[in-house]
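Regression test case RT-17, inverse folding.

Input:
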């Protein structure tokens, strides 16, 4: 029987929540200081219909403060331009895409938040019921591990083989590679590899926050379609409602459609070029500085990083000083590689 655990890392500048499935990270929730509360999954707002796109059955919503969302609608309940509606955010924004709202009923007054989105701890307790939420150093280690795995492309399949997960603008492509997986019965080996790959793919897609169209290129030929369909339904069951799974096609691929609910983790952590953002690097630096500060009470410590990262880290260092005392120095080193983060004696 699968076992899930929950971890909550209350860091400086961000809160991270982790759900593990059989000790492997399955979900990572990241909430950073400065995130727009109007765009978080589950937030309820009063919004104003700013325009309509009838050919797409979509309304554009003004959430206030220059923030927008879209509202898909049915032709028999077409909203009216200028109308106020109460909505719930059902899909967070993605790069180049607006947040998606769901109409709850008529609204009154100017655009505003009616009810904030659930905080990270509340989300964890919803996802993993009747389990203690672990905090402290163990939670930080779990969040760091989840972050690292979420950004990887290649993943080891239990028992052997490689799974590659590569998002594109149109869909997410997953390749199953038998690699060095061995066995005398090739048909049995490929069948087991595909079944293991489906379970792994489901966990990784949840961890990475990926949805939409997914195409899985299975290994081998002559697939047991019924067994693979049953395995896929079980693996992607936690993503319901909204999951659609197609049968294995003539080219050995399985297609799925998964609901898009959260912002992909790569967009939270990285720039468009795929490298960690200055903000993500600054938060990593602060975690290292905090760890050293807690292990060396009273010691004066210095953090050294690139200038752009230092600008993001400066207010975080000030917050750390409020917690552990004014004994930290931040040094910007011109020309330093962005990814070089150093912590040592001041």
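Golden output:
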């Amino acid at each position: 029987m699968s076992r899930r655990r929950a971890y909550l890392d209350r860091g400086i500048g961000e809160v991270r929540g982790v759900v593990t499935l059989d000790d492997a990270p399955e979900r990572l929730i990241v909430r950073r200081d400065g995130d727009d509360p109007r765009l978080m999954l589950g937030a309820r707002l009063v919004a104003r219909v700013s325009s309509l796109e009838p050919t797409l059955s979509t309304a554009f919503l003004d959430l206030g403060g220059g923030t927008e969302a879209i509202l898909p609608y049915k032709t028999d309940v077409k909203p009216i331009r200028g109308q106020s509606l109460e909505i719930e955010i059902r899909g967070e924004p993605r790069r180049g895409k607006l947040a998606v709202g769901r109409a709850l009923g008529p609204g009154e007054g100017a655009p505003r938040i009616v009810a904030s989105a659930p905080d990270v701890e509340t989300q964890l307790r919803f996802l993993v019921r009747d389990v203690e939420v672990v905090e402290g150093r163990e939670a930080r280690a779990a969040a760091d591990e989840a972050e690292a795995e979420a950004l990887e492309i290649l993943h080891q399949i239990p028992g052997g083989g490689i799974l590659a997960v590569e998002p594109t603008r149109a869909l997410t492509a997953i390749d199953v590679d038998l690699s060095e997986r061995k066995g005398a019965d090739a048909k049995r080996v490929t069948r087991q590899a595909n079944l293991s790959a489906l379970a792994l793919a489901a966990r990784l897609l949840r961890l990475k926050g990926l949805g939409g169209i997914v195409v899985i290129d299975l290994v081998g030929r002559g697939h047991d379609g019924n067994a693979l369909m049953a395995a896929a339904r079980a693996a992607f069951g936690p993503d319901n409602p909204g999951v659609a799974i197609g049968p294995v096609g003539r080219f050995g691929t399985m297609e799925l459609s998964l609901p898009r609910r959260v912002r992909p983790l790569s967009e939270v952590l990285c720039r468009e070029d795929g490298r960690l953002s200055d903000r993500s690097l600054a938060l990593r630096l602060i975690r290292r500085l905090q760890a050293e500060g807690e292990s060396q009470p009273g010691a004066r410590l210095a953090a050294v990083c690139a200038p752009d990262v230092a600008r993001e880290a400066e207010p975080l260092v000030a917050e750390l000083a409020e917690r552990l005392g004014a004994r930290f120095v931040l040094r910007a080193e011109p020309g330093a590689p962005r990814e070089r983060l150093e912590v040592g004696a001041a």
